[in-house]
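Try this one yourself first.
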């Protein structure tokens, strides 16, 4: 079976692309020989630990795909629901990600016309089930052991607490709100250094600068730093390791790869107790803060009102709950710098487990 499967997935620096590469790494270890159709342009420059044997295997899987695929072979796709109406094989299993709370008719139709659709959080699976989709299942994403690991080194001088805030700048992730709250509370406060890795590669350099300047109301704070685009996973691994604590305050996530990897290398975080975060962030390994109502998803950029896809709402949160969780994460870090419960996520969410569940759904 491992040679008689079709794959359709991206290989690039995005979250989708990183998951695609991680799936391939496990299939390579299993000595599988799938027919690989790459969505978009392949770009593996951000990856580490890319052996010549693995790269050659990828190239072979791509080069043979058109000559060897058969529609009778089970097929696996990794992509957005939008444009996932096509398939390579008669049986198709799709892994996709949805952050909103209201499946549209187009999204439901695409899901129902797949053999199976896999989501990475129970919240999404349940809302599709409530809308009549019976072919949806939840599988966990995974810790990427090939690109990320704990580095016990000192990155900063002094005793300031270094706080990481990451993921590409967008309204869904509440970056503008986070910046305004933190500058009001802790701007130019010598207790903290806030390091933001929120550069959005889908925006121009000037647009990124303008978004940050607007969130800062044109002011400067010496303890707030905004990093440029981090081009490789090695750079991002260093960044995650450089922080003492982190903030995960997105209003809608299908998982939360940076947050999960931060916990898994032993960092403490203040995390919004909603949607995909709930799959890995617990009271034992995180400082959780609750939701308080919902906010419309439309932002005029990535989510457009009245369109066939990505409609509905995200979960909002309250400033005081956010600050209370942040302060508690600081206190927890000062008492216990290494998050031992977080480290356990490396063994709980392995890429071997993720791929074995994908293969199970392809076989059954």
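Now uncover the answer:
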């Amino acid at each position: 079976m491992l040679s008689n499967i079709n794959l359709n997935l991206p290989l690039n620096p995005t979250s989708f692309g990183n998951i695609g590469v991680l799936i391939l790494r496990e299939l390579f270890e299993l000595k599988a020989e799938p027919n690989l159709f790459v969505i978009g342009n392949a770009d593996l420059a951000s990856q580490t630990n890319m052996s010549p044997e693995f790269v050659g295997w990828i190239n072979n899987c791509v080069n043979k795909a058109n000559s060897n695929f058969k529609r009778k072979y089970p097929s696996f796709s990794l992509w957005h629901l939008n444009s996932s109406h096509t398939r390579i094989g008669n049986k198709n299993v799709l892994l996709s990600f949805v952050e909103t709370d209201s499946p549209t008719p187009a999204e439901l139709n695409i899901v129902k016309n797949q053999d199976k659709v896999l989501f990475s959080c129970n919240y999404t699976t349940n809302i599709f089930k409530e809308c009549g989709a019976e072919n949806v299942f939840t599988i966990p994403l995974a810790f990427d052991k090939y690109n990320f690991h704990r580095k016990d080194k000192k990155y900063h001088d002094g005793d300031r607490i270094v706080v990481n805030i990451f993921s590409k700048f967008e309204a869904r992730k509440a970056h503008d709100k986070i910046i305004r709250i933190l500058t009001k509370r802790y701007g130019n406060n010598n207790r903290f250094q806030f390091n933001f890795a929120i550069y959005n590669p889908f925006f121009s350099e000037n647009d990124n600068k303008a978004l940050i300047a607007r969130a800062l109301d044109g002011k400067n704070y010496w303890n707030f730093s905004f990093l440029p685009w981090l081009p490789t996973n090695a750079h991002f691994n260093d960044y995650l390791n450089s922080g003492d604590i982190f903030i995960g305050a997105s209003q809608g996530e299908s998982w939360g790869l940076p947050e999960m990897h931060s916990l898994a290398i032993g960092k403490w975080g203040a995390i919004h107790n909603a949607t995909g975060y709930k799959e890995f962030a617990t009271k034992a390994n995180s400082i959780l803060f609750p939701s308080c109502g919902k906010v419309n998803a439309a932002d005029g950029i990535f989510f457009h009102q009245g369109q066939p896809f990505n409609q509905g709402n995200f979960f909002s949160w309250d400033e005081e709950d956010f600050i209370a969780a942040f302060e508690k994460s600081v206190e927890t870090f000062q008492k216990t710098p290494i998050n031992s419960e977080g480290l356990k996520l490396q063994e709980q969410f392995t890429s071997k487990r993720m791929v074995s569940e994908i293969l199970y759904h392809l076989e059954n």
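Discussion: The radius of gyration is 21 Å. The mean pLDDT is 97.
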